[in-house]
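BUG: 3D viewer hangs when loading the predicted structure for this chain

Environment: internal workstation, default settings.
Expected: structure renders.
Actual: progress bar stalls at 90%.

Input used:
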Amino acid sequence: MYDLKKLHPISIGDLIRIGNDADGGYVISKQQIEKTELLLSFGINDDWSFESDFLQKKNVKLYAFDHSVSDKIFKYRSSLDFKMMLANALMFRISKAKWYNRSYHYLLRISKDFKQFFQEKSHRFFIQKFLGEKDNEIFTRFDTFFSNLPNIKELSVFIKMDIENWEYRTLPQIIPFFDKINGMVIEFHELDIVGEKFEEIINLLSVQFYIAHIHANNFGELIYNTNLPKVLEITFINKAMLSDTVMLSTYKYPIQKLDFPNNKTQDDIVLDF
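Structure tokens produced before the viewer hung:
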């Protein structure tokens, strides 16, 4: 099991929520937004509210990565749901027909929003690849991609990462570029299974980063017979961003008006340090 006490955030006075007041929204520092010139987002699925909100506050260049989605994929999924809606309506499965109808219209809207948001002319680039351990048609390595970007200033990059367990395999690739990154918000998964690997990653990141914020994703629930969440959302801030002596935060987590349950049908998970 991992040690929650080692994850106690430092005190940051300018925390702000970016994105939805549910799953897909995260808490970061305002000064990270101000410093950022390049936003890298790994894993978007059907929710880019974080990226959209971030860019409304500061219009920076965005590269978003996800092999599982695209405009064509959303349209294909909507066409399947439309067919299922008709089939269930003909078989008088009215409740199922209504569900597929809602899903069909939702996916049509998402497809349209996706196409409007990710436009190269607005410097919002979508790359249909996962972050991985090799470079091919499906995956890209962080170090391969990042090394090819020109003129990256120190502390000018912010990273959002929600890549369903690949964080443990890919985060070591970021180490050589720590000086370029002002912060990261990372969703760590399956902590009941990979607790030791998680602590290794935290130790690697702690060389250059403080924990600025932490929140438990209540879709993951608690590890059996413990008060430890299975899924954690952690915001890191580069130590070079802070000149004053740091103190541990005195907030109670979750923080009211900043943190919200990912699953709104259940109470948020309280973190006890």
